């Protein structure tokens, strides 16, 4: 593609496909169905195409994934509360969120709770059916001895991704419950590498995704000042730009890091120091003719890279994309939407043809 | 559906579905509903509601396996048949976290062969090297088995596939700490760095090993690391990894060590005039540790070269640094 053209229409169609279905070859991705739905919904929202979304139906479905306390004993398996990835466990469809029975293996996943709440927010829901106390208490139980956060109750991996998800949950519900903020912040700091970035776990190699999770989490906790030398982190982040952004030293650039690294810089107040043109150039060489963005040029697009490609462009204030909130990863809902000059885009297309 | 969407859908269906096509061993699948040993179990279907979004287009095999597994999770039955079913399920849905915990519960309760389990995990990791749940499952099995004897060879095989696979390193970091396997690690990572000094994961791991997970003070290991790092830098001056590695030590250096470092880097600057790294390192030394008026002047010159020629991507950053250093000069 020689001329940089933002294919808004194609991207809308791309996300619309995933809004409606998950194709069979990737049926096993249903264990992340809520996050894929989030990419589709927020993607369409970013593109100003919310008319494609049947909000009421989506909201019903999202609420039906909420695990609420047991009707007979609200302490029974209370650590399981929150949102599922989808109806995998086989419970009855319960969008009213009435209390029924809790089961050992029917568990919320912190990333699904985060994306469920995000979807509801974007669609303008008022969280009326959220059992706030149950969600906050269950999420707080995911915190480990060392301050880290697990994905689900029981035995599960713990890493900075889940730290971030839990911090957003507390922020959305305006309630940090019994979550130990000091311990969590110290854990995050212990993930900082010798070169300034943050690894996924302590001693882990500095990585763009985990650095975002670290920085955003600290910001949400109001503990950004615990970072001993913010300039050192900013240096690491800025050096991740080759053309687009790489996730680690000596690795090729990848579209999604235009968001992970870009949003981190935005939070630390240094985004304007990047090279806008090179970043834009890279994201565009990953734009697919049929819609969506891939991680590298000439590879296939996927919902995650498509979504973060758009977020990456939004950080640069381009193409009439609404501003994202770098802490949440979706549109800043407090701001007015920019007007989409669709007619102008079409005229320019005609001129070229 | 629009034309575009039809093409998109067709392309999605042609996706290389490693997870299903390649993982399924038996070409002829016997539906679980037709298996005698499952006669007494009532499968549980999924209730997706009247108008679900992101509708999953399940294959019959997937749907039926999940229906029976749902019944098993509900009943929490631990038995040979549920252990077997969990394997079938995980081959189809390898990211279903809770299924791994259920499977471990069966394995541990029934004294299942954990060494065989490690075999199975590796087979799946071969196809899905970045699956978080598989790596975690392996960790839990090895922990229970309390036997790490196969793990180094396993990691060596995984590294052949991708020596930068983040999971490989997270796992090794855990393994070495858990079983206190520090002894051979320095030799190991030096060997890897000989083969590929550009692999940043190697450098990060070296740091972990020499500091023994940040328990050994930097002062103790500096001289050894200085020798090692500059041995590599002289071979490849534009490699970022060793530079950021050694720059981490600057804060603990005494006057004499700072001078030695400075002279070494300055020598490299003269030999490799187009490289950004000696300039960047000297800039840091001059503005933070060896602050004199002359050095700040040099720092300004280097910042100019970096922004205009050798590190143009960070032009705006260097313009900002110039302003900061000019102010620093004024305040001297």
Automatic annotation (TrEMBL), chain A:
UniProt cross-references to InterPro entries, sorted A to Z: GGTase_I_beta, PGGT1B-like, Prenyltrans, Terpenoid_cyclase/PrenylTrfase
Molecular functions per Gene Ontology: CAAX-protein geranylgeranyltransferase activity; metal ion binding
Residue ranges occupied by any Prenyltransferase alpha-alpha toroid domain in the UniProt entry: 6-328
Sorted UniProt keywords: Magnesium, Metal-binding, Prenyltransferase, Repeat, Transferase, Zinc
Keyword DNA-binding listed: no
Obligatory cofactor(s): Zn(2+); Mg(2+)
Pfam family for this entry, one: Prenyltrans
Enzyme Commission (EC) number: 2.5.1.59
Superkingdom, natural source: Eukaryota
GO cellular component, one term: CAAX-protein geranylgeranyltransferase complex
Coiled coil regions in record: none
Assembly mode: Heterodimer of FNTA and PGGT1B. PGGT1B mediates interaction with substrate peptides.
Family of the protein in this entry: Belongs to the protein prenyltransferase subunit beta family.
Protein name (database record): Geranylgeranyl transferase type-1 subunit beta
Origin organism lineage: Eukaryota, Metamonada, Anaeramoebidae, Anaeramoeba
TrEMBL record, chain B:
InterPro entries: Prenyl_trans_a (IPR002088)
Source species, domain of life: Eukaryota
Cofactors, names only: Mg(2+)
Keywords recorded for this protein, A-Z: Magnesium, Prenyltransferase, Repeat, Transferase
Assigned EC number: 2.5.1.58, 2.5.1.59
PANTHER family named among the record's database cross-references: PROTEIN FARNESYLTRANSFERASE ALPHA SUBUNIT/RAB GERANYLGERANYL TRANSFERASE ALPHA SUBUNIT, PROTEIN FARNESYLTRANSFERASE_GERANYLGERANYLTRANSFERASE TYPE-1 SUBUNIT ALPHA
Entry similarity comment: Belongs to the protein prenyltransferase subunit alpha family.
Protein name, per record: Protein farnesyltransferase/geranylgeranyltransferase type-1 subunit alpha
Origin species: Anaeramoeba flamelloides
């Amino acid at each position: 593609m020689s001329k940089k053209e933002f294919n808004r229409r194609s991207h809308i169609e791309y996300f619309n496909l995933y809004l409606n279905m998950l194709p069979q070859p990737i049926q096993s991705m249903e264990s992340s169905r809520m996050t894929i739905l989030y990419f589709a919904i927020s993607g369409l929202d970013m593109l100003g195409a919310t008319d494609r979304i049947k909000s009421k139906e989506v909201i019903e479905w999202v609420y039906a994934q909420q695990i609420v306390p047991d009707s007979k004993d609200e302490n029974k398996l209370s650590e399981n509360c929150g949102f599922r990835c989808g109806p995998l466990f086989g419970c009855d469809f319960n969008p009213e969120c009435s209390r029924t029975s809790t089961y050992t293996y029917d568990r919320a996943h912190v990333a699904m709770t985060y994306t469920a709440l995000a979807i509801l927010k974007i669609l303008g829901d008022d969280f009326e059916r959220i059992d706030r106390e149950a969600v906050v208490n269950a999420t707080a139980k995911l915190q480990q001895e060392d301050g880290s956060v697990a994905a689900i109750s029981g035995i599960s991996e713990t890493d900075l991704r889940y730290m971030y998800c839990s911090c957003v949950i507390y922020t959305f519900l305006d309630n940090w419950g019994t979550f130990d903020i000091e311990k969590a912040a110290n854990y995050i700091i212990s993930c900082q590498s010798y070169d300034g970035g943050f690894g996924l776990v302590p001693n882990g190699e500095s990585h763009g995704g985990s650095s975002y999770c670290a920085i955003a989490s600290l910001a949400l906790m109001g503990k950004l000042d615990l970072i001993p030398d913010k300039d050192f982190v900013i240096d690491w982040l800025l050096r991740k730009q080759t053309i687009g952004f790489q996730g680690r030293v000596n690795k090729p650039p990848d579209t999604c890091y235009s968001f992970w690294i870009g949003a981190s810089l935005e939070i630390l107040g240094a985004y304007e120091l990047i090279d806008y043109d090179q970043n834009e150039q890279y994201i565009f060489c990953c734009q697919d003719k049929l819609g969506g963005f891939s991680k590298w040029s000439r590879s296939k697009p996927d919902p995650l890279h498509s979504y973060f490609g758009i977020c990456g462009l939004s950080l640069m204030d381009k193409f009439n994309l609404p501003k994202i909130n770098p802490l949440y990863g979706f549109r800043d809902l407090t701001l007015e939407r920019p007007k989409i000059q669709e007619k102008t885009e079409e005229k320019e297309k005609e001129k070229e043809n | 559906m629009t034309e575009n969407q039809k093409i998109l859908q067709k392309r999605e269906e042609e996706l290389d579905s490693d997870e299903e096509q390649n993982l399924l061993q038996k070409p002829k699948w016997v539906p679980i509903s037709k298996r005698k040993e499952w006669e007494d179990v009532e499968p549980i279907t999924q209730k997706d509601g009247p108008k679900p979004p992101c509708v999953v287009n399940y294959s019959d095999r997937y749907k039926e396996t999940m229906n029976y597994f749902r019944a098993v999770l509900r009943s929490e039955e631990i038995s040979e048949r549920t252990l077997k079913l969990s394997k079938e399920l995980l081959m189809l849905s390898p990211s279903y976290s809770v299924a791994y915990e259920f499977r471990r519960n069966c394995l541990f309760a029934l004294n299942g062969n954990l060494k065989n389990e490690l075999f199975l995990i590796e087979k799946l990791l071969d196809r899905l090297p970045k699956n978080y749940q598989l790596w975690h499952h392996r960790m839990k099995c090895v922990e229970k088995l309390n036997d790490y004897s196969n793990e180094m060879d396993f990691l060596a095989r995984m590294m052949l596939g991708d020596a930068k696979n983040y999971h490989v390193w997270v796992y090794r970091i855990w393994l070495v700490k858990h079983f206190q396997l520090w002894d051979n690690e320095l030799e190991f990572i030096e060997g890897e760095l000989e083969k590929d000094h550009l692999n940043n994961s190697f450098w990060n791991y070296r740091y972990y090993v020499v500091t023994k997970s940040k328990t050994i003070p930097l002062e103790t290991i500096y001289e050894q690391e200085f020798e090692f790092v500059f041995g590599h830098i002289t071979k490849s001056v534009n490699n970022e990894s060793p530079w950021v590695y050694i720059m981490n030590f600057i804060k603990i250096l005494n006057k004499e060590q700072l001078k030695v470092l400075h002279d070494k880097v300055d020598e490299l600057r003269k030999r490799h005039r187009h490289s950004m790294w000696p300039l960047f390192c000297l800039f840091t030394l001059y503005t933070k540790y060896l602050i004199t008026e002359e050095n700040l002047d040099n720092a300004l010159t280097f910042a100019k070269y970096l922004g205009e020629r050798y590190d143009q991507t960070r032009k705006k950053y260097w313009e900002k640094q110039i302003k900061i250093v000019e102010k620093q000069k004024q305040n001297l």
